[in-house]
Design a protein that fits this description.
AhpD-like, 4CMD/NDH-1_regulator, 7 helices, mainly alpha, Decarb_PcaC, globular, about 80% helix, peroxiredoxin activity
């Protein structure tokens, strides 16, 4: 593995938690291994590993982009990750306010629904 892969795996574990990454690794197959390597090296080992933004800021930006693009499936995962990145509920709601204005109220509304469901699950 490359240094970028190792860095990416470390950042990924720090943000998403060992349990999540362990499940993803356990479900990895030879078919999707190149994809998993790509996201570990690029998303986690390059983008998330950069010192240009804090992890709190990256969480807010990631959630806003997921919502704005309609990629709702990953929102709960990134809401859970906020516990590790320092992004508060208020931070997330501020990001979704931007989504409402710049990408559309329905997208923000759905993202908020998913966030509230995830926060409720975490509080149980």
């Amino acid at each position: 593995m490359t240094n970028r892969y190792d860095t990416g795996m470390s950042v990924r574990r720090s943000v998403l938690g060992d349990a999540h990454v362990d499940r993803a690794e356990a479900n990895k197959t030879p078919l999707d291994e190149p994809f998993q390597t790509l996201i570990t090296e690029s998303a986690w080992g390059t983008v998330w590993a950069s010192d240009g933004l804090s992890r709190r800021e990256r969480s807010m930006l990631t959630l806003a982009l997921l919502a704005a693009c309609g990629n709702f499936e990953e929102i709960p995962m990134h809401i859970r990750a906020c516990a590790n990145t320092g992004a508060s509920k208020e931070d997330v709601m501020e990001a979704f306010q931007h989504v409402a204005i710049y990408a559309g109220v329905p997208k923000a509304n759905h993202a908020i629904k998913l966030a509230k469901q995830t926060w409720a699950e975490l509080e149980k």
